[in-house]
Write a structure and sequence with these properties.
Shape: elongated
Radius of gyration: 48 Å
Helix content: 40-55%
Structural class: alpha+beta
Number of helices: 29
Number of strands: 33
Largest sheet: 6 strands, antiparallel
Strand order of the largest sheet: 8-7-6-11-10-9
């Protein structure tokens, strides 16, 4: 008896809806059925009947009387995909555990694959549910077209005809003044867009509006919005309600398959809603076909935008089906390969690109794509004109709902220039290695901090310490302090100027002092190459042949004179260097004042060339510091300023040279300064001998047992002060003041460090010293010569 009442009530409900909407309901594409509380189909619409006849002509009738739950259970037993979800969802709705169940599912026949959108909504007037099916195969094929890279046109025909007709018929079905359909466009800002509005005599304007402060605001929570009467008093600021004199309002949310709110379908009337349950059920019946269309609209908008982006992407994007037939070819692919899209679509990609892949390579690549989700590699392909190009490819699979492969999409980039550059680099490196292996010198790669990065040995030389002990460490960690400071200055100057620097130094090796020459070359960035050779034999031969001969451009017992050029204009510095090096001089150059003073102290230049601007820099006080550290002649270079030259000479400069000057003039002035300075030394100084130790102030040369000892300026000044006071103890503070200046009072550790280094260079044993004697707690002295 209960079932018969359910059937009668359902048929009555459907007749009411059909009578109210007439031709519209016959035009609905959704298949709609009403189930009783046990799941038996008690009523269906025309669309359901047509579907039943088309899918299974042998079955008589539209399915009325069949139990839909039994149909689902048989599908579960047959292993039909998603049937379990449908069964559980329908049972939940029929038990009223949930008001609505939504999902999409795939329906596979021997001839095709189709997709459907299922909505099951509980009935409020009676036990049971309304089930709506909508064929969304077209939308899903559009989605697959995007994954394959296909393009399409958005026609919008559904929104221009179907949805406006739906809201018009909804108004007629419920006999209300206004029916409307809105789409949610901005959830954070609570904004919606009116898609269609029927206002009794015609359609209203489509517009965007805020939901805040309006009856439909609770739709955002996925709830049905019902105001059976008095709605205008509850929302006095709603201009639409005021304009139409709205008394009642009802709207149902439109939810996608994941439960997200897409929009809402609603009604407004000038009289109260008498049968709320009937109105809500009718709204849900009309809402059922709307959801798939809204989802389709969103998909099409997204696809249109993504398709435009893909087509204009900078990389070639090529799509194929699972038989390697080309289905997509963007603009970058046309530019990369020279083929237009219409020339290649539908052709086998292997025929078009002639990828140098064996069948086994291709099989492994496809297997990698399926297992790892993508394949990355470099291949050789061919342009339309036959030109071979190197391609860096990233290939990804396109899968069907069951996870099977239905196509591939590949993002390809022409890397021919990179491959060519890499080959050129490899060739250059091979050539460099061949050259390096032929060089008889040791090669060290060092960075700006002095860290040893690499080492290439020489056949005849070996480094100061084994490579395992210095690679990865710094110059200052490995070499003696004075040598390390010298090398680091050379590295710094080389990196700043970009020019080759030459550094000479001495190191103890195999029980004797060996002399080395390092040519430092900038490699780019913060790295240099130090080409090091042992110059001991060459230097000894030069000293033996020249002896104590004097002559132009010769100082320090046969060595080339050293000139320090301090100039802020790098181009001027390079000109001075070229001129003087061509004249046989060693040239140090810098534009940094602090580095210039370090050069004076460590390198002991024979002549200093100062730019007038540097000379007159009161803040730097360069000239005073030079005079404190050295007695070398100072030549000032100016731009023809008479007053500047006078000021320089009065301040103590030895000469003033005006620009422009010739190479011959510059060299002549430097030679003159060297001769005057050297002759003054020879007259005023005689050698001092302390056994095997000989100090010659005339050319600042120190020898032990006839072998020259290389000292820094500070080490030489320390030794000379002690020698001048031979036989007398000099206190620590007295030595610090005479050698370093009053600013070093009390810095005894500085003094002890230099004494220790000086003893090492002189071969003096600190436990039984021959030259530098310690007076514990007082100072140091030298025995009488």
């Amino acid at each position: 008896m209960v079932k018969e009442l359910d059937v009668i009530r359902a048929e009555q409900l459907l007749r009411q809806a059909e009578t109210a909407s007439g031709a519209f309901l016959d035009a609905l594409t959704d298949e709609i059925a009403i189930l009783d509380s046990a799941g038996t189909i008690i009523a269906v619409n025309e669309a359901w009947k047509r579907f039943a006849r088309n899918e299974n002509p042998a079955v008589e009738g539209p399915g009325v009387g069949l139990n839909y739950l039994d149909v689902c259970e048989r599908a579960v037993a047959d292993g039909v995909e998603d049937s379990r979800k449908v069964l559980d969802g329908l049972r939940s709705v029929l038990r009223k555990a949930t008001s609505q169940f939504v999902m999409e599912y795939e329906f596979v026949t021997p001839s095709e694959r189709r997709w459907f959108h299922l909505t099951a909504t509980g009935l409020s007037q009676m036990p049971g549910a309304l089930v709506a099916h909508r064929d969304i195969t077209g939308a899903r094929k559009v989605e697959e077209a995007l994954r394959l890279g296909g393009q399409f046109d958005v026609t919008g025909q559904v929104f221009e005809s179907f949805l406006p007709a739906l809201v018009k018929n909804l108004a007629a079905a419920l006999n209300v003044k206004i029916a409307f359909l809105s789409e949610l466009v901005d959830l954070p800002n609570r904004r919606a867009r009116m898609i269609a509005t029927w206002e009794g005599t015609g359609f209203g304007d489509t517009r965007e509006y805020r939901l805040e402060g309006k009856p439909a605001e609770q739709i955002l929570a996925g709830k049905t919005c019902v105001f059976a009467s008095g709605v205008r008093k509850l929302f006095p600021d709603d201009q639409v309600l005021a304009r139409v004199e709205g008394e009642s309002y009802m709207a149902v949310p439109l939810l996608d398959s994941s439960g997200q709110v897409l929009g809402h379908l609603g009604i407004v009337d000038t009289k109260p809603i008498e049968d709320v349950s009937f109105a809500e059920t009718t709204l849900r019946v009309f809402a059922a076909p709307v959801v798939p269309e809204l989802e389709r609209r969103r998909i099409e908008r997204r696809l249109a935008e993504q398709s435009r982006l893909i087509y204009s992407a900078p990389d070639a994007i090529v799509g194929t089906d699972d038989h390697f037939t080309i289905t997509y070819w963007n603009r970058a692919a046309e530019n990369t390969y020279g083929w237009r899209g219409e020339e290649v679509l539908g052709r086998d990609i292997r025929e078009v690109l002639r990828t140098e892949f064996t069948d086994e390579d291709r099989r492994q690549a496809v297997q990698t794509v399926m297992e790892a989700g993508e394949y990355r590699g470099e291949v050789v392909q061919y342009r339309k004109d036959g030109t071979a190009i190197n391609i860096g490819a990233t290939t990804m699979p396109i899968r069907n709902g069951a996870g099977g492969l239905i196509g591939l999409v590949s993002i390809n980039r022409d890397i021919s220039e990179r491959v060519l550059a890499e080959q050129r680099l490899r060739d250059a490196e091979a050539k460099t290695r061949a050259i390096v292996e032929a060089i008889p010198d040791m090669l060290f790669t060092v960075d700006a901090r002095g860290k040893f990065l690499s080492f290439t040995p020489s056949k005849d030389l070996r480094p100061f310490v084994p490579p395992s002990e210095f690679l990865g460490k710094t110059v200052e960690e490995i070499m003696p302090p004075d040598v390390a400071a010298l090398v680091m200055r050379g590295i710094g100057t080389c990196l700043r100027s970009g020019l080759t620097e030459t550094v000479e130094y001495q190191l103890p090796l195999d029980g004797e002092i060996r002399e080395f020459e390092a040519r430092i070359v900038a490699l780019g960035g913060d790295e240099v190459l130090a080409i090091v050779r042992d110059s001991t034999a060459e230097k000894r031969q030069a000293r033996a042949s020249q002896g104590r001969q004097t002559g132009p451009a010769v100082t320090r017992s046969g060595e080339k004179p050293c000139v320090l050029a301090v100039e802020r204009d790098i181009r001027a510095l390079r000109l001075v260097r070229r001129v003087l090096e061509n004249a046989g001089k060693n040239v140090l150059m810098t534009s940094d004042v602090d580095e210039a003073l370090d050069f004076v102290e460590m390198e002991r230049p024979d002549v200093v060339l100062l730019d007038l601007a540097v000379f007159e820099d009161e803040e730097a006080n360069v000239f005073s510091e030079l005079r404190r550290l050295s007695d070398a002649p100072v030549l000032v270079l100016g731009a023809g300023e008479v007053e500047g030259g006078v000021r320089a000479l009065r301040a103590g400069a030895d000469d003033y040279i005006t620009r422009p000057f010739s190479a011959a003039e510059l060299d002549a002035r430097v030679e003159l300064a060297l001769r005057h300075h050297r002759s003054g030394r020879l007259v005023s100084a005689t050698p001092m001998e302390f056994g095997e130790l000989v100090i010659n102030p005339a050319d600042r040369m120190v020898t032990v047992s006839g072998e020259r000892v290389a000292l820094t300026l500070t080490e030489y000044k320390l030794l000379l002060e002690l020698a001048d006071a031979a036989g007398r103890v000099m206190t620590h503070d007295e030595i610090l003041d005479r050698v370093w200046g009053p600013g070093y009072a009390g810095q005894y550790e500085v003094l002890r460090t230099f004494v220790r280094t000086l003893r090492q260079k002189l071969g003096d044993d600190a436990r039984q010293p021959r030259f530098l004697l310690s007076e514990r707690g007082v100072g140091y002295r030298m025995g009488k010569g």
